[in-house]
Specification:
The complex is a heterodimer.
Chain A (H helix, E strand, L loop, with lengths): L4 E2 L1 H15 L4 E4 L3 H4 L1 H7 L4 E3 L4 H12 L5 E6 H4 L3 H9 L5 E6 L17 H6 L5 E3 L4 H13 L4 E4 L5 E2 L14 E4 L4 E5 L4 H13 L4 E5 L2 E3 L3 H11 L1 E9 L4 H8 L7 E7 L9 H7 L4 H11 L1
Helix pairs in contact in A: 1-3, 1-8, 4-6, 9-13
Chain B lengths: L11 H28 L4 H5 L2 H11 L14 E4 L5 H10 L7 H4 L27 H15 L5 E6 L6 H12 L4 E7 L17 H7 L3 E6 L3 H12 L4 E7 L7 H4 L12 H10 L8
Parallel strand pairs in B: 1-2, 2-3, 3-5, 4-5
Helix pairs in contact in B: 1-3, 1-4, 1-11, 3-4, 3-9, 6-7
Amino acid sequence: MISDTLSTRNGFGNGLLRAAEEREDFVVMDADLAKSTRGGWFRDEYPERWFNMGISEQDMFATAAGLASTGRPVFANTFAIFAQRGFDQIRQQIARGKRNVTVVGSHAGVITGQDGASAQAIEDISIYRGLPNMRVFSPADAVEANRLVSVLAEDNDPAYLRLVRDDIPILHDKEYKPKAGTGEVLREGSDVTLIAHGAMVHRALAAAEDLAEQGVSARVINMFCIKPLDSDLVLDAAKKTGAVVTAEDHNVIGGLGSAVAETLSGEQSVTVARVGVNDEFGLTGRPEQLYEHFGLTSVNIAEAAMEVL
Amino acid sequence: MNIVTSTHSPDGKLSDRIGMYREIAPEIRKEIVEMCHAAQSGHPGGSLSAVEYLLWLYGEELQVSPDTLQDHDRDRLVYSKGHACPVLYAVLSHYGLLDADLSKEFRRIGGLPGHSSPKVPGVEFPSGSLGQGLSYANGLAMGADLDGRDYDVYTVLGDGEIQEGNVWEAAMTAGEKDLDTIAIVDRNMKQNDLPVAKTKEIDPVPEKFEAFGWKTFRCDGHNFESIADAFNAVRAVDGPRLIIADTIKGYPISFMEDQPNGYHAGGPSEEELELALAELGFGEEDP
């Protein structure tokens, strides 16, 4: 199934172009980072529906809300870390106003690498998960990011879409259609469940391979929709396997790990381990070096699984 | 102060209308102080400074009616200084756009929120955090351009509010994109703690906006002829336009005007209510 690699930001850029063939209404905004977010790909084809808002994220998100109130879905793109500069506008205008705006946060996580701690959003999921009306998505591959563009343009609720810069393996075929509020079982297993999002999903699959060699059967869930969380899927997996490991390129506080732990807080017989960044800022380095430094490799996931078994 | 002076003799019809607005204004002010008294909270000072231009906007400029509040082509007013919502609710109610028992519902659960939001009929914009309205209005103007619609977009800002950086990001956007938008700054000179000049001076407001590509105008915000003239001048040009409405926070209630913050927030006591109503001309008649 794994045949190629592509970043989720590239999948998103392709998704904008694909969705533009389905519908003519949506608008794309960037804040001087269109080349990096791939909003620039849309700009080159549909310049009349693309706006460069300059280096002013607060302005971009409040403007996006106003524009969305006229009936047009808006994708407002910047780096995940800079979207946070417009948090209050996202809260007051997009979430509270319940506008059809997708806040697109590219270059999220320590995978952003050499730009260092200032550029590595490891708290973004925690921030947006706490906002009423806000949904949170972190696609596992470029196909999922691509298809989510249509999903998010179509439904009317606000969303945060977390993307990564670096190429990661493609896990889905072109027919795949993600559905908001669901998780996806990528591998069946009976001893332990590995739940991951974004660039950690393919690592969870690799960890499951390693575990199989040690005689452990691991179920793998791609939880690309972190809010609303597919709690039925989490509860079912926890009951059937008895042990859960979450894995994410995000702080262990407030992210998928917290969401899963909240869901399982009433389950006495389930053990949960959270693999993630242990409440510290990132640092400069190559992505793979940083994944080793912060304990985010498939080996770390497999070790965590052995501990909760 | 460069107040726009009357350049024409209003015809009888306009002067009749202005006469009517003058009669309504004290009624709106009465509603404001009664609402804040009943809720024992709220923002009377900045509401009292906004009475005349809001009566004018909804009476003369905005194409809205109770039947067209959801129409795509309706004119839109972004009330960014939404803490001062008692005046907005009272004016919306006066024009039949809002059906509510103002004093019983203001700041009560299930009633009229403490900062204006679109949950209230006639309100376009989720306010409460200052500095965001101008950006939102830009989005509305951009939507009009994309859809080929010609509805008007207005924003009302407080003067202290323009200390927020987001206002200047939005001013730059409107100038750069030459958006058709009209903003009013309520220049009542006072903010939450102290006078604006003793907090962080915002002048020269016209020059600042002009540097961002705006055309600016000025009026006496408590004088309907002056407001009418300002809007006449505004309508003669296009692009981003700003009216600085010189007002008095708490006007015309003496003990509110006298405060360093113009009675920014709080519910008038029984005694204060009585005094305020007397100063507004609603006192008990002499025997």
